[in-house]
Model the fold of this input.
Amino acid sequence: MNFISVRNHQTIPLSGIPMLDYDSFLELNVFNLIREKGAHCVNYFGFRLDGLIRLVCCIANDESHSIQVSSSAVPRMALPSFSKHNLVFEKFEREIHENFGIAYTDHPWLKPVRFPFNRFDPGSRIADYPFFKVDSEELHEVGVGPIHAGIIEPGHFRFICNGEQIVHLEIQLGYQHRGVESLFLEKNKLLQRCTLAENIAGDSVVGHSLAFAHLWESLCKHQTGDHLKMARTIALELERIAIHTGDLSAMCTDVAYQLGSAVFGRLRTPVINFFQKWCGNRLAKGLIRPGKSHFPFTRDLAIGLMDFLDEYENDFEDISKELFSLPSALARFEKTGVLTTGQALAIGTVGLSARMSGVSRDIRASHPHDAYEALDHQPVLKTHGDVYARARLRKKEINQSINHIRHLIKILAAPEVYDQNPLKPAPDSFCVSLVEGWRGEICHCAITDGKGELIHYKIKDPSFHNWLGLALAVRNNEISDFPIANKSFDLSYCGHDL
Done:
């Protein structure tokens, strides 16, 4: 077998990942695994080992609920690219190029991704980023950012326009870094690593913390109880409700629908206030910990949450009915920022950015964890790929999350007695952890050495896949429609730049 098939959150010996020569590695992943029905690349990265660059590719198969892992060890040299044959690999290979200096001979878009402090070529500067250009008397460029009029993080948007119409958009991120992946290796206390995980992206605290918790528990061969699994699922769905509600508010703001902006914004507040009541933090920091919880989901919390959801749902349905019947809002939403099914598949979008184009990509259904198997989760799909589809998906997913939480509370298991922190990770091991955050598929991978210490930690936020989707979606739109298209995707700067 030239690959090993694993399940979500499964730990295997590093030696169990088949090592292929590079040509066989390329052929396996590009011409075989990625072409199977329901297959997509969840991670592709490199790390240094024994003087070579060890490449590891993880292809998830949503039909078989498995992840096919293969590897190759190469020196720093020019290599043929995966991306020439399949565009879903393009950003992964650009990152490998930036980190290790591998010069792909036929990559269609080989330029830096992030400009991190530890990049292979410290002489490459973000100020010299080679933007795509078109020489034409009819076309002009419009640059937005990297500094924005607000508190959002830096990113540059370079538009090529014909009058008011967008012909091309290139999005350049990489303006700031915290070195999160390196810090996972430097910080050797579990609490420090938990703190890092919940600060990868401030709007996805539960999602990223849960990915780390599952990975660590798997590495330590630690089994969690049913109550903890249910509580974690409730937390993940509450985070989805909170952010989707806030996004609907922001989308109303961008089309000047002030009532919707105010009401959806007001509805978000008690959701995050429930996290404050549960764990002392409105963003759920401190709630998710490997192997245990300092804040068990009690029966009193369950009763309070059920009462709140009843009150929330009444107001939510009322304002949603108003929004989705308002001609002025629908005129801005419908047929704006369209990403077709073919485009979504070609670039490997995940999460909401895939499901709004009819691509059924949802870890809760394809690689379920915690209580999702008991919920029999079915992804919500739309097909038009426009701002309207993204708004409707948020509304439908909020309804679905409320139903999930109500069902879990009805069957809530008794709290377990929590033991000490999970023990030391297994030596010479590999683990991949997938979680469906509100934005989409979160992936954490870890590799340990012979002493069980982390030697590589790889994080992939769903925004890594989806920023290109925004760039494609705004083509042939008016530049004035960019803000609502951008907000309807609501992608992460810090989750991308790490």
